[in-house]
Each structure stands twice: as C-alpha cells, then as structure tokens.
Amino acid sequence: MGLKEIRDALRQKALSALSKSSPYGLDIDISRFTVDLGSGRLDLEDYTDIMESVGVDPKERDRSGSYYQVDNIATYYSSKYKGLVVKPISEALKDEDILDYYWRAVPVDLDKYTATAFLYERDGYYIRVDDGVDIPIPIQACLLLRSPSLLQVPHNIVVVGEGAKLHVLTGCTVARENPGMHIGISEFYVKKRGLLTFTMIHSWSRGMHIRPRTSVYVDTGGIFVSQYITTSLVDSIQMYPTVYLIGDGSSAYLSSVIVGRGSSHIDVGGAIELKAARSSGEIVSRVLSMDESRIVSRGRIRGLVRGVKGHIECRGLILSDGSYIDAIPELEARAYDVQLTHEAAVGKIAEEEILYLMAKGFTEDEAKSIVVRGFLQPKLPMLPRQLADYLSVVMERIAYAL
C-alpha cells in the first residue's frame, strides 16, 4: 500500500474522531486556533535566548545534529554523523521506508487532537539511526511557536536501529506570550538492543494549550529512557505517553519534573505495558504546585506476562493553599509472578525541615529554596554531563525564585 492509499484510509478514521474528547485534562475547542503554516523564517540571533532556555544550542556545540521548526514549517536540519538521518517528515515521506512507521504507533483516531494533527500535518522531524551506530552526543530539535493563535501540529518519528544508541533533546517553546495550541505527535521505535534517551523540555506561556501524543515500541533487549521537564506558565497541558515493551528483556524509565504556576491546569501521565518476558519499567515524577495551579500526576504499569517488574514513584510538594495535586498511580497484573510496586506522597514543606535549616543560619526563604531544590532533583540516568549541569541550573533558578 502506497502513501496515498495509507493517507486516504487514515483520513477516514481521523474524520470520524474529530468530536472525540480525551478522557483526561481540559477539553479545548480547537476551532479557536488558526490552522496554517505560519511564518516559517527563523533568525537565530533573535531567538538565541529562547532556544537556550529549552536546552537547544544554536551553535550546535556538542550536538550530533539539529532540527528547527517555526510554527508548522521546518527551517533547518543537519546531521554530523554517518548513519544518522535527520529530515522533515515532508521530505522523509518521499521514501517508502518510512511507511513502516508512519502513524503506526499513535492511533490517528485516538482523540480529536490526533485526528486534527493528521488532517493538518505538514512537518515534524524524522530521525533514524542505522544498525550498530552509537551517536555519542545528543541530537537537538527546537519546535518554536511564533504566530499568535496558531495551531502547531508537528509529527515526529524516531527509529533507533539494532544495537544503536541515540539521545534526542527536544525543546518546545513560544516566541512571546501568545494564545496558541501545540499538538505534537511522536512515534518512537527502538529495535533489538537499541537505546533511545529522549529529553523534552517545555517552556510555554499564558494562553498556550499543549496536547502531545506519544507512543513507543521497544524490542528485545532495547531500552527507552524519557525525561520530561516543564516549569513555565501555561494555560493547560495534557499528555499520557505510552511505552510498549514487546521484546524479551526490554526496559523503560520515565521521569518527569513538573512545576505548576499561576492558574495552570496540568494533567500529565505515563504508562508502561510489560508485554514480554523479563521486561521492566519504572515511572518517577516530581510535582510542585504554586499559586492556583492544578496538577494531576498519573502513572500506570500493566504486567501482562510472567516474570516482569514495574515500579511507580510520585512525590508532590504543595507551596500554596490555592493549588492542588492529585497523584494517581495504577498497577495492573494479568499474569502469575508479576512484581509491581508503587509509592506516592503529596504534602507541604515540613516545618521541622525549615526550622532545622534556620537553626543552621539560613533565613526562612533560603531554607525553603534549599528544600525545593533538593526535591526537584530526580535521578536522570544516562544524561550527558553538559545537559545534567544545565538542568541543575534550571532547578536552582526555580528554587531561588520562590
């Protein structure tokens, strides 16, 4: 079946789902936002600070390649390594090889957001690493929304070959405080013994509604590591990435750091399906609520065959009486000899911690900052030192700004 036939079939499914709301998060009227390509031109000097705020280096230092997209148009892409392919989806679709992955992981009719993303799809990144290729430094992608009231719909596909290794750093941000909507579709495929580390940093603004949709398939001995960070003001975020461990001995680790500000509505989750023998998964989240923000932190692990292991850890810290956090861990065992565990804790800063630090000579504000800084430091495995140092600075800035 060629691209035209595939798209025709997908279109029928998408049209049938345009009124299908997500079971989680705020229901947003997509028709409020403009559907077009946007401006597309990118002057790096004008946006250096914005790009750096989400971990993207416009000079591509210690980067294996880059992909930049403004609104709905790819503006720049590069690869510095043999065996590493970086293209916009619009270019990649000229090669039939991509059809094995195109809308195969994320159902086009999952909800009205996926349906809309397909119907107005233009660009997004296609990244592929050939079998046996180890890319030693991260590849970066920047998805910048610049035009006001725009609907941005990037479709991203990443394929990591057998025995290959790759780290993708994606920074999603907005050029100025504008109303807008971002629906990012991401489909990831990790082949046998492959390793994909995916770090996504969000920095949005008031008026923005964010609806990413992500699915991951991991084959025998493969590893998927996800690190998600959002700390800025935003109207709403709703995302629920799902990892399917389909190969013997495959594993996944999902971690997130979420800071709710203003009147943000944030509903973020993650799911791992343990579908193969000796597969294992872990979901770890750190959630901090301020002002009048509302945060729902979800985690679900399903053990579907014998001999699998999974763990969920969710910790929430409430910094204002007007905010709240809901932690919802879910474990489901469908076979004998499944080991699934979870721990969740939500509360305010313990008064004894503050008093102890004040007794050591710190002011009350300094003591609170120290506690928050320590709280926002989850374990982030396989993270390059440069990026780990950058994230540490970000967390310190948040702590001291409280």
Distance between the ends? 56 Å
Low-confidence parts: none
Shape: globular
Helix content: 10-25%
The whole-number mean of residue pLDDT values reads 91
Based on CA atoms alone, the radius of gyration comes out at 21 Å
Strand content: 35-45%
Q: Which structural class best describes the helix and strand composition? A: alpha/beta
Describe the structure.
18% of the residues lie in helices and 40% in strands. The protein has 402 residues and is α/β, with parallel strands linked by helices.
Please render the helix and strand layout as text.
Layout: H1 3-16, H2 44-52, E1 65-70, E2 73-79, E3 84-88, H3 89-92, H4 112-119, E4 125-129, E5 139-145, E6 150-152, E7 155-160, E8 165-174, E9 180-182, E10 185-190, E11 195-203, E12 208-210, E13 213-218, E14 223-230, E15 236-239, E16 242-245, E17 251-260, E18 265-268, E19 271-274, E20 280-289, E21 294-303, E22 309-318, E23 324-333, E24 339-347, H5 351-359, H6 364-375, H7 385-401
Helix pairs in contact: 1-4, 5-6, 6-7
